[in-house]
Write a structure and sequence with these properties.
Blueprint lengths: L1 E6 L3 E7 L5 E8 L6 H19 L8 E6 L2 E3 L4 E4 L22 E5 H12 L8 E6 L3 E7 L2 E3 L31 H12 L11 H9 L3 H25 L3 E5 L7 H11 L8 H4 E3 L6 H15 L2
Parallel strand pairs: 1-4, 4-7, 8-11, 11-12
Antiparallel strand pairs: 1-2, 2-3, 5-6, 8-9, 9-10
Helix pairs in contact: 2-8, 3-5, 4-5, 5-6
């Protein structure tokens, strides 16, 4: 049994995961970032101790801790190297400072963890070669080839698609992350809102998708632009890496068929030698992708891989 921790931002999710992918004892908490490390350590250790108590007398035992965390991580030393956002107080610190245990602890970047979760519990049970995109605040992902994770394949969002686009944080111009991500959408929303009445403003990415499902031309224009460039990245990865599937995961992917159908239509004239309806699929792991990923990270620690 794995104690799984999904650390995607100020809200951390936790659960227990077994080898077949059953999630139990789901519990989340908000990190008190003003307190720094104690604001993460104290609530996480409280939950960790409760899970030990919950398993007493059940015949199950915790074998490892698996963590998927935003930012640049050092998985060898279980250390957060760089997060410029809400977890910056952890930069340079290891998660063994947070979870006090003799159990193995394994940390991975959340996008890599998502690919590991898909490999172990999702489409990877049937497909051995796939690209995974995590569509959220940014655009990350991972590559699985021959049933094995390519461990440095995390920066899927830094694929240039628009030479006339904005400068990306990586230094390049027009990376797909600058065109299709919550961050990209919210930048476009700010621009569009300048020409809309205050009571008609688009509030955020969630509201954008709600309006786009209706007849709001401004919202649809933002989404259609993003899909146009996302499709170019998908086509590029398909042609260069030759995977069997491209899997969409992350919060934005929860828009489901509404989003998928638009991506498929945009891909029809540009996806070479593939049927886009078969090639691009939604993750089967849904809103708990981060916990499945963390569980898979922990299981690799148990198995010594």
């Amino acid at each position: 049994m794995i104690f799984a921790v999904d650390g995607g931002g100020t809200t951390f999710k936790t659960c227990l995961v077994n080898e077949v992918g059953d999630l139990t004892h789901l519990e989340s908490f908000r990190v008190d970032t003003a307190r720094g490390i104690p604001g993460l350590r104290d609530p996480l250790m409280d939950i960790f101790r409760r899970r030990f108590s919950d398993l007493e007398g059940t015949g199950d035992a915790l074998e490892a801790v698996g963590i998927g965390c935003r930012g640049v991580v050092d998985p060898v030393n279980n250390r957060l190297v760089d997060d410029p956002g809400v977890l910056k107080f952890m930069n340079g610190h290891g998660f063994d400072e947070i979870i006090e245990t003799d159990l193995p602890i394994r940390l991975q970047n959340d996008a890599v963890a998502a690919a590991m979760g898909e490999k172990r519990f999702g489409i990877g049970r049937e497909i051995k070669n796939f690209v995974l995109f995590t569509l959220g605040t940014g655009l990350g992902g991972g590559l699985v080839m021959g049933g094995e994770l390519v461990r440095r394949s995390t920066e899927m969002g830094h694929y240039p698609v628009n030479p006339e686009g904005v400068r990306c944080q990586c230094g390049n111009i027009g990376c797909v992350e600058t065109e299709f991500s919550a961050g990209a959408f919210e930048r476009r929303i700010d621009e569009v809102n300048e020409t809309r009445e205050a009571g008609d403003a688009i509030r955020d990415t969630r509201h954008l998708f709600k309006l786009a499902r209706g007849d709001d031309a401004g919202a649809r224009a933002i989404l259609d632009r993003g899909v146009y460039f996302l499709a170019r990245a998908i086509s590029g990865y398909a042609n260069s890496l030759d995977p069997d599937r491209l899997v969409l995961s992350g919060g934005i992917s929860l828009a489901g068929e509404f989003l998928l159908s638009r991506i498929v239509e945009e891909l029809r004239p540009i996806l070479w030698r593939r049927d886009p309806e078969q090639f691009v699929v939604l993750s089967r792991l849904g809103a708990q992708m981060g916990l499945y990923g963390a569980g898979a990270v922990g299981m690799d620690a148990v198995n010594g891989t």
